[in-house]
Amino acid sequence: MSLAKPWMDLLAARGYRPLLQSADEYPEIAFQAEDRLYRLFMDESDPAFFGMVLACDVPDELRGPARLLDAANRMNDAWKVAKTIIDPERFTVVRFHFEALVDRGGPSAELLGRALSSLHMMAGRFFEEVAAGSAPVMRC
């Protein structure tokens, strides 16, 4: 839990209740923020690497490969550190990934906030675009 501990401590200090999901060479921490489940992941062989994922169910009325892939491609073209990934088999889940490098100072509240904000904004914009005029529904 060498890489996970500082992140667990930071999340707890910020009022989240982190749960260590995996403690192997790829630690994964789950926590909720604003009623959404986020997963933070690391790589023990690359201590500078940091990633966070927000996975959302796609409502039935918005499912459709062309519609989802078009929106994901536009989002991926426009965003730098966050990417949209569509479940390629069922088109029922969309994942928003944020990846960055942690500086020598280790985990920071600023990086955590930037990741949360980026994923939240990206998910909101994705579902607004896919809904195309109707009220977007996010199930994250």
**Rounded average pLDDT:** 91
What is the beta-strand fraction?
Answer: 25-35%
Distance between the termini: 27 Å
Query: Nearest-angstrom radius of gyration?
Result: 16 Å
Output the structural class: alpha+beta
Helix and strand pattern: HEEEEHEEH
Instruction: Please estimate the helix content.
Output: 25-40%
General shape:
elongated
What this model shows, in words?
This protein is of the alpha+beta class. The chain contains three helices and six strands. The chain has a six-stranded antiparallel beta sheet with strand order 1-2-3-4-6-5. The longest helix has 23 residues, at 109-131.
Quick overview:
The chain has 140 residues and is an alpha+beta fold. 34% of the residues lie in helices and 28% in strands. It contains three helices and six strands; from the N terminus they run αββββαββα.
List the helices and strands and how they pair.
Elements: H1 4-13, E1 19-22, E2 28-33, E3 36-41, E4 49-57, H2 65-78, E5 82-86, E6 93-101, H3 109-131
Antiparallel strand pairs: 1-2, 2-3, 3-4, 4-6, 5-6
List keywords for this structure.
3 helices, 28% strand, 140 residues, alpha+beta, six-stranded antiparallel β-sheet
